[in-house]
Amino acid sequence: MLLGGPLACLDAAYTSRLVVAACVLFEGWGDGLPTRELVRFLPAPAPYQSGALYRRELPALLEVLRALEEEPVLLLVDAYVWLDERGRPGLGAHLWAALESRRPVVGVAKRPFRGAPAVAVWRGRSRRPLFVTAAGVDPRWAAERVAAMHGAFRIPTLLATVDRLSRQALLRAGRP
Questions:
Q1: For 139-171, what is the HEC assignment?
Q2: What is the pTM of this model?
Q3: Full residue range of the structural domain in which residue 129 is found
Q4: Number of separate domains in the chain
Q5: For 113, left (φ over 0), alpha (ψ -120 to 50), or beta?
């Protein structure tokens, strides 16, 4: 399933003055190193709005995706795709809609969200699962792939890499 291009992990970090989006591309679910890393900066995020946190990160994620030469065939985000069984959208669903449902989005969340239709994935020796939701692919299929990703710990290596990349870029940008 899903042939013909790279996979991508996306993450964003922000302050009141700046948003940083990071992307790491990779070829296979078991890869431990990215084939490419990319960071993009945007000015101040949208103001905080309860229930609409996606407004802060989505523009930056779209900007980093526009900067890629090759479209990834699937996107992984540190967020929920769906927040409940009725289809209330999380960041991942907003990303999927913004991309006109052209490629699957897999959400990998670290904390439970009451009512979210997530598949729990235990990795490494962790007693806490990750919570996988998806748009454009079966969530059970996505959960199996997340479970098989590289890394001995709870958070797969490349998801940890993209998180670190966005946070470090934000810290560097904040220095005078």
A1: HHHHHHHHHHCCCCCCCCHHHHHHHHHHHHHHH
A2: 0.93
A3: 7-174
A4: 1
A5: beta
2 belongs to a structural domain: no
CATH number at residue 12: 3.30.2170.10
Q: How far apart are CA 38 and CA 157, in angstroms?
A: 16
Q: Is 163 within a domain? A: yes
pLDDT in tens, the chain (176 residues): 455 789 999 999 988 889 999 999 999 999 999 999 999 999 877 776 766 778 889 999 999 999 999 999 999 999 999 999 999 999 999 999 999 999 999 999 999 999 999 999 999 889 999 999 999 999 999 999 999 999 999 999 999 999 999 999 999 987 54
> How far is residue 37's CA from residue 8's CA, in Å, rounded to a whole number?
10
Number of Cβ within 10 Å of residue 34's Cβ equals 21
Measured in whole angstroms, the distance separating CA 36 from the mean position of its chain's CA atoms is 16
Is 13 a member of any domain?
A: yes
- Asked if residue 62 belongs to a domain, the reply is yes
